[in-house]
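1st attempt posting a full record on here, be nice pls
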Amino acid sequence: MASASTTPPIFNVNERVLCYHGPLIYEAKVLKATIHDENTTPSGQPGAHYFVHYKGWKQTWDEWVPANRLLKLSEANVALQKSLQQTNTAGAQGGGTSSKAHPRAAGGNKDNVSTRAGARKDGTRGTKRAREEDDSNKRPEMKLNIPETLRARLVDDWERVTKHNQLVKLPRSPNVVELLSQYAEYVKATKPPHLKEPALIVPTVVFGLQCYFDRALGANLLYRFERPQYAQIRMEYWTGPKVVYGTEKEMSVIYGAEHLLRMLVSLPQMIASSSLDSESVALVRDYANELLVYMEKEKDRIFQREYDNASLAYQSAARS
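the predicted structure (as tokens):
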């Protein structure tokens, strides 16, 4: 482990923070801070890392995390935390997932209440300024309908990794890139009537989903137990000394349907933090819902039936 760097850590020791763990966010405390290079990083990402303790959790869950898994403890980020928790609860109870709040829009509720409707006591419409403020506070809403069988797979996936010490076998086949390509061909061939201009739009949507996956995997989509495996995969295919320049492989070429499904559950929150307009959000929503339908149809082919049992040495490393 490197202990010094010209770039100061973003977070301070003893600072209370919020930390992503899987698709959810938990309050934590920074206990240590250090800098890792490509050869020493426990997460597969070089740079600042923080050893955190999750509030209310046993010390066995303490872990090193990269900076992109941490958030400042602010009203806006607490609102995002609550939104993710509500989404996860709704999905577990059979509801869809939706993004109803933008992180930057949270925290100003007191002022928003007085101007949101732009209405006066006499029932007349408010001022133009109030209406403009109302429009500026609107955020596009995205709702995904997770099929019951896929929700069950999410629970099964969570139990296998966190309770039974098992890991998805990597590399996967089909991987995320292949799965999305197959989905695109399916859409072009079937031309679902509710999808707008499939031949023109589906390539762009698929590319965007792949980019979201590659950016989100290491930061948001892994359980703690999977992180040593991720670090090893990154070393083997991206950062390691044996990787020839120009032959690096994105994680979407290594991981498969199990982690893509986790991303789709978190997609509404990712979209809420983007600059997409309402029309673009609606397009992504429709194509993502159709992807979930496709994944349910192909579930026996695309999901791994058996996970690998992690060795005792791996289990010890994952919990150290």
